[in-house]
Amino acid sequence: MPTYKQFPLADTAEGLTEADILSWHVKPGDTVTVNQIVVEIETAKAAVELPIPWAGVVTELHVEPGQTVEVGTPILTIDVDPGGAAAPAPAAAPAASAPAEEEEMKPLVGYGSKTVVTQRRARKGAEPAPVAAVAAPPAPAPAAPRGGYVPLAKPPVRKLAKDLGVDLHALTGSADGGVITREDVERAANGTPVVTSTVDSNARERRVPIKGVRKMTAAAMVQSAYTAPHVTEFLTIDVTPMMEFREKLKKSREFAGVKVTPLTFAAKAVCLAAKRTPDVNAVWDEQAQEIVYKDYVHLGIAAATPRGLIVPKVRDADSMSLKELANALTQLTDTAREGKTSPADMANGTITITNVGVFGVDTGTPIINPGESAILCLGAIKDQPWVVDGEIKVRKVLQLSLSFDHRVVDGQQGSEFLADVGALLADPAMAMTY
Asked: Which sequence positions are flagged as catalytic?
């Protein structure tokens, strides 16, 4: 007989409770192999592709793209013995009077510590029932479509709509059969949606569920704002020498093809300054009632992505040269924009940089990333009048702001760190003295 197993949503990161289904890579009837990618999900931290631990034939997909599913919920059923007699996949293991034979399904490698138990039960007077992996809680029925209307769109189009905040229920597809296309979603995102009869055509509001990265970011920012007493200091500096040095590097053979930006210099400056003021690279451990000082810098870089704000880390940034930092930052930002940053790459940072200058903003009062004690904000570099040797000249001017946790960092340490970063950016040759 066929042997069925249900594939539950795995815990891809410690503490994960739910995830959104982005797209399926398989469909009923497809044959899959061990560790083949079958689904892409979006957790509270990143988009993640999940492999399946068995080989067999997919019999049923239990959830649609766009649905939010709790960890442990079965999302797919697979027949691991397709050579058996054909039979419909059971929704759950039937009641049994015979003792159950339990077999343990190990969680995916690196995907948490949850264990799912499968049970083989025998019906009265019948042959043993097929094996079904039973997760707790049991799989809920798919959410009822709004107003009975199910938007017709391919998984990549659903993903694009999710990224752009477009409600597919509010669109009428322009393709044959009413299928929603990429162009339909892009038009809606630009403010010219085609509205279906299920939505009030006079509505001037749009509601988007709070979930995924946005939900995680909001919770983290609220927690940080109400647990760490924030202090923010500001410093305006002349970075003309830094910008001139940048031009020299771009012409050098060693930095050919390397993308050196003001963020690169700021990353190096933070690593150097943190060595002289280790308080900014420490963290307050409330439970242990200790301040934990880090002898390494896992540098967080706040990155705006289609899914929201994330903070991937450059591991051991303090051990990198300027060129290595430049390449690491380029790779980090490219990966973030593609939505491929893994949850592991966003954990265990020690200090963060956020760059609002790329949006033309002068400065800001950033909120400290949870688990850290300081965050540096870079403003836009602009031509402004500046006094040089008693004369007013046009110079490249940058505003810095530093928010820090006053439980860990006193005003003196915060000021010294900010002054150090400013000195390094105002005169890169100062790095020789650190």
From this structure: 406
Residue 76 parent element (H or E): strand 74-79
Q: Is the pTM of this model over 0.90?
A: no
Maximum distance among all alpha carbons in the chain?
Answer: 101
Number of other residues whose CB lies within 10 A of the CB of residue 179: 14
- What is the C-alpha separation between 434 and 416, in angstroms, rounded? 13
Phi, psi of 282 (to 5 degrees): -105, 180
Contact 259, 250 (CB under 8 A): no
CATH 3.30.559.10 fits 213-433, yes or no: yes
43-52, 73-82, 105-114: the lowest-pLDDT one: 105-114
Domain with CATH 3.30.559.10 in the chain: 213-433
DSSP conformational letter for 389: T
Report the alpha-carbon distance of residue 409 to residue 274 in Å, rounded.
12
Q: 141-183 pLDDT, tens per residue?
A: 334 444 444 567 776 777 788 778 888 877 878 876 677 888 8
Q: Which CATH architecture has domain 4-134?
A: Beta Barrel (2.40)
90 close to 73: Cβ distance less than 8 angstroms: no
137: preceding bond cis by omega (within 30 degrees): yes
Q: With DSSP H G I counted as helix, E B as strand and the rest as coil, what are the percentages for the chain, rounded to 5?
A: 30, 25, 45
CATH superfamily of 147-209: E3-binding domain (4.10.320.10)
- Whole-number average pLDDT of the chain: 81
